[in-house]
Amino acid sequence: MIVIVHHDNKIVKVLHNAQVIDGYLNQPLTETFIVLASAYPDSLILWCHQSCEAHINYEGLTEVFHHQRILASFYIGSHYLPEQIGYVERSYYLKINKQVTYPTWLMSSMVGGVHASVVNTVTSILPKSNPFDYYLNSLAKHGMTQGLFCYSSPDLLKENVSISYQQETASISILYQFVKQHYKWVWVYFLTLAICVYEKRLPIVALLKSLFFKQQHLEFNLGKLKIHSLKQVNTTSTVDVIIPTIGRKQYLYDVLMDLSKQTLLPKTVVIVEQNPEPNSTSELDYLATQDWPFNIKHTFTHQTGVCNARNIALSQVESEWALLGDDDNRFEADLIASLLEAVTKYGVTVGTTVYLQPHETQTYLNTAQTSIFGAGNSLIKSELIKQVQFDKRYEFNYGEDNDFGMQLRHLGEDVIYFANIKITHLKAPFGGYRTKVKQLWEDDLTQPKPSPTIYLLHSTYFTSNQLQGYQLLLGLKSYKRGHEKNPFKFVKQFKVKWQKSAEWSQKLTQSINA
């Protein structure tokens, strides 16, 4: 293990297995970091500000860096990139829960680490002339979508320590440089517009400077770094499958047949059948008339709603793992075995699959962290079910699956997208929202925009700058598509619709709590 102790972007000392290595005093931090990774290619490379040196949690490092492709850091305060990065960032990676290990590409030089093999993989393509904080954030931003697993981890430090460290904050010009290099070119102009609208200033110098930078298209080729997690997440390899269904008898039958052919059979399939007709009974006669190679728990209810149905099903899970399915999925015989092999290999408790319709083509080919969650195609450790549930504020609308995923992340769990495991989603033409559900705001003279549940989702998990950026982008798109072309009238109308959405999102919460 290499430990780099630094101050003011200069090296204070370097330790190799607790022994000081001479020759690095006052050397520049970024360049030395790269040199040491090359010199010790099989080592974990840690860095810390000198104020943190005595507080590193060495006993917990194996838990943090449980496989070779992890980049983790920690800082309790504001990060290197200014909060205005939220204007252009649309993921859920900025509003970090600092109490748990949380997926994010925001990195800090206060304390952190990465395996030397990761650094050596990117040395020839990632610019090393930038300050160390910029280098780390760039590495994480590029790497996260390519299979580098990036986290904010409080476990890097011992518990209940007090550290007098002030994170350097990048200038507005550096922010513009970062946006220009890591996002599409149009986002520097959007950033400028957002600052003008919400902060009433025009950073023209920073904008002009950014024009001299080009967007970086960096391929890290991290796939050659094999992953074998030290975490033991699977003990029994038992799986229960949950399936909410409504009016899709034949489709559900096909799903059960696919499950019956699994090389690793589920222990139990939990089916929650919904039919809103008061005098209706179950149409799933084959559950009883046909022999199945697994247990079936069948609940019939007149109450519709996928959130309610999934919660009922999750409450009946008994196995170590729960596979969240849908009644119009199709998949190969090795699905369950492949999922268990993948979560074991990566040491994670939540995994989601490729989930495309038959006519769609897979474009995202890297197994990596994801900010989405698939409620019909994900495997989760059942012990987590006791702490999360599908939020009924999203019932009959949108966002319940992403909210469920965010609840898991705020428990300290990550969601991994497995690019080589596939479920086909048929998108059956009937079922689902067959019964017309009247929304609370349906009779309102001014219809909310966006949907109140989308506002609820974003206002809960976005930073304030992200929410403003989303508002501005939605407004621009609405103006382009709408009939009102008087910009002053449009802005006035849009603000009213936005406020209506905020009000109805609050009423949704009140109606659930009532």
Considering the chains and any ligands shown, give keywords for the structure.
alpha/beta; 9-stranded mixed beta sheet; 514 residues; 33% helix; 8-stranded mixed beta sheet
Got a strand count? 17
Question: Over the alpha carbons, how many angstroms does the gyration radius reach?
Answer: 25 Å
Proportion of residues in extended strands = 15-25%
Structural class: alpha/beta
Task: Please state the average pLDDT score.
Answer: 95
Which residues sit in consecutive blocks of at least 5 with pLDDT less than 50?
Answer: none
N-C termini distance: 55 Å
Helix coverage percent: 25-40%
Shape: globular
Reported for the largest beta sheet, the result is:
9 strands, mixed
Number of helices in the DSSP assignment: 15
Q: Would you kindly provide a written description of the structure presented here, covering whatever features stand out?
A:
The chain has helices at residues 29-39, 61-64, 116-122, 132-144, 172-182, 186-199, 204-210, 249-260, 286-289, 306-314, 335-346, 400-409, 452-461, 464-481, 487-513; strands at residues 2-7, 10-16, 19-21, 44-49, 70-74, 102-103, 111-115, 149-152, 239-245, 268-274, 295-301, 321-324, 329-330, 350-356, 368-369, 378-381, 416-425. The strands form two sheets. Strands 9, 10, 11, 12, 13, 14, 15, 16 and 17 form a nine-stranded mixed β-sheet that branches. The chain is globular. With 514 residues, the chain is α/β, with parallel strands linked by helices.
